[in-house]
Amino acid sequence: MYPPNIPPTAPPHSHHHPPPPQPQYAAGIPAHYGVPPACNAKWSSSLCACCSDVPNCCLTCWCPCITFGQIAEIVDKGNTSCGVHGVLYGLIQVLTGCGCIYSCNYRTKMRSQYGLRESPCNDCLVHFFCEPLALCQEYRELKNHGFDISIGWQGNIERQNYGVQMPPMAPGMYR
Fold first, then answer.
1. pTM of the prediction?
2. pLDDT of the chain along its 175 residues, tens only?
3. How many other CB atoms are found less than 10 A from the CB of residue 71?
4. Phi and psi at residue 45, in whole multiples of 5°?
5. What are the sequence ranges of the domains in the chain?
6. Pure H helices in 76-168
């Protein structure tokens, strides 16, 4: 046995191996998406870095249900559309004033998917006291992970599968 406070050393015949390479991102969908990493990574931007994406900041301040819907669709891997998430968030916000109860769950899901720290405090507290800031930070985080939030989950999957950036469709082109 080893004496207390002295860590055991590796046997002389063992070889030290470097850590495995980090996963690469393929056209917007992380290679490890869905595999929960260790929860110690920092967010790619701070909670108060809203001015780094002014258009999203303005949209989130005036209509947070749109930003939340976009985030939730990506975090949910397209299981529910942006519109459904946005409407549910809007209804909860209008009827109770507590849309943060719904949105904080998606922050927790996103943190789990990317191994992000619960920072600066508990997810529910971040959303309760700083809802617009939290939504903007989550939006930026998904963008920084390679997602084009404006094309939704399916658009990102198509972009990954075909290696083509999908141009945004102009209104009236759906005929």
1. 0.71
2. 434 444 444 444 444 444 444 444 444 455 445 545 556 889 999 999 988 999 999 999 999 999 999 999 999 999 999 999 999 999 999 999 999 999 999 999 999 999 999 989 999 999 999 999 999 999 999 999 999 999 999 999 999 888 755 555 555 544 4
3. 29
4. -145, 160
5. 35-146
6. 82-96, 99-114, 123-144, 152-162
